[in-house]
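Memo to structure team: turn this sequence into structure tokens by end of day. - J.P.
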Amino acid sequence: LPRLSLAAHLAHAAGFVNDAAAINEACLSVMKVEGKNDNGVTDGTASGFVAFDDQTLVTSCHVIENAHSITAFSDTGASYEIDRVLCANSDSDIAILRFKEPTGLKPLELNEDGKVYRASPVVAIGSPKGFANTVSKGNVSSVYTDDDGIRYIKFNAAISAGSSGGPLLDDEGKVIGITSGSYVGATQNLNEAVNIIELVELAAAPKEELAED
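Reply from structure team:
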């Protein structure tokens, strides 16, 4: 009998989740977001990421609610001022912001079909407690749609206060969600992200249909 080729049994190359170089490259497009009140006092820090083009920042809507001015800091420490809010939706907790000038940063690729599968490996990047672009790994725990029709992803990669607005990426390096919060109490390491399809639809919606803040 002919010998079977071993090539058919070779494992596939490591995906994004196990590619440290690719993860570090993605970090270059993730920002620590700092909001200041009317008195110029920093209210806190959160996370965001460059999407669509090099002058657009995506974050969580609740991050900007009380901010008089917003500055985003890149992985290299460079600072970029936000010029305006393009659109925001408090229901899906998403805000799309515009930098004053182009940043030259590479937009992260989005999972535009919105399909997410339980047990899929994920990487979360954000600035928990202000520690810029901290990386954690885990998997998708579940996906669901709430009573208002907003689509969510539950996952177990660690996040903390300050992670909100950061990207949740799949094994192809595409953003599948925007991290939004953690469950506290008896629940063990269960966190939540808004499915990225909510961002895709928000960005594409006619202006009069947007729930702007």
